[in-house]
Design goal:
six-stranded mixed β-sheet; globular; about 300 residues; about 20% helix; alpha+beta
Length: about 300
């Protein structure tokens, strides 16, 4: 019987953040009163934020008193929810944070954040990025008005509310049902870096249909027995990565028809295990990515790990 498996843990950016408190988004008076004790996370134009160390080598998002930065809620701030202590929590855009060891990015340090902070950072990055996009190329007089504490806008041209968009994308671990996995690389990646086939869902397309199409388009391999694994927010700028695994034939010819893929090859599980341990020449996606969790979970399931 072909190998079947599930994720051995939740992707780090999928671990639930503190209460989003959606019921407060339209309570303008309550939010205004809460600003006095609120906390903010600042995100600069390079999508960087500050962190603080905690026990065990982990890090926590730096949440600063809101009143240290503004006497009242800035129009550019977005409401994220409630802290564990029940304080209001906001994200604020910043032109530039200082270059020091505490300032980092989600890509480089997301896996080091305490549970929930990765999802919180993803939420902040996605919302602030959406607002940047809504004003790009427009004069100030044509900027939309923010409502619902940053969770909607009212466009002066179209009228009515518009809400943050999320773009679904699939990512698929293609394996032979046994010890081999098909990995591909993009030409812009570091030498030796390989990962799974991924791509955006097209209009009128199911997630499973997108998996079949993307694998066929990018590496020329037909797959079947498509099975869902899990999902992860990926706020670059506002994607949702939906993970699957599927069976492919390792004897089928690999045909690179997509210019985004420069190489693709089948790898034995021993090569993958070495890469996950930081050994060998193969390099794989970092732990912050669902791609890493998928590969680690598959490798652990083959021959019982």
């Amino acid at each position: 019987m072909p190998l079947d498996f599930s994720l051995d843990s939740d992707p780090v950016l999928s671990v639930a953040a503190p209460d989003r408190a959606a019921h407060l988004r339209q309570d303008a008076d309550g939010l205004a009163r809460g600003w006095a004790t609120a906390r903010v996370v600042r995100i600069d134009h390079r999508d960087r934020f500050a962190t603080d160390p905690v026990a065990g080598g982990r890090r926590r998002l730096r949440l600063e008193p809101a009143m240290d930065h503004a006497d009242r809620m800035p129009e550019t701030a977005v409401f994220l929810g409630l802290t564990e202590e029940g304080r209001h929590l906001w994200a604020m855009p910043e032109d530039e944070l200082p270059d020091d060891p505490s300032v980092t990015t989600l890509r480089s340090s997301g896996a080091d954040l305490v549970d929930g902070d990765g999802a919180l950072a993803s939420q902040a990055l996605a919302l602030l990025g959406w607002h940047r996009d809504t004003v790009r190329g427009r004069g100030p007089q044509h900027h939309p008005r923010r409502v619902d504490a940053g969770w909607a806008i009212e466009d002066p041209f179209h009228g009515g509310p518009e809400y943050p968009r999320t773009d679904p994308a699939v990512i698929c671990l293609v394996h032979d049902g046994g010890r081999r996995v098909l990995l591909a690389r993009q030409p812009v990646w570091p030498t030796g870096m390989y990962s799974h086939v991924a791509g955006f869902v097209e209009a009128g397309e199911s997630l499973e249909g997108c998996v079949v199409r993307e694998v066929q388009e990018e590496v020329g391999v037909a797959v079947d027995r498509v099975r869902y694994l899990g999902s992860q927010p990926w706020p670059f700028p506002r994607s949702l990565m939906v993970g699957f695994h599927a069976i492919g034939d390792p004897d089928a010819p690999i045909v690179l028809e997509d210019e985004e893929i420069s190489e693709a090859a089948w790898f034995d599980v021993d090569d993958v295990r070495a890469a996950l341990d930081g050994r060998g020449t193969l390099r794989v996606a970092p732990p912050v990515s669902i791609a890493h969790v998928m590969l680690r979970s598959w490798a652990a399931a083959v021959d019982g790990g």
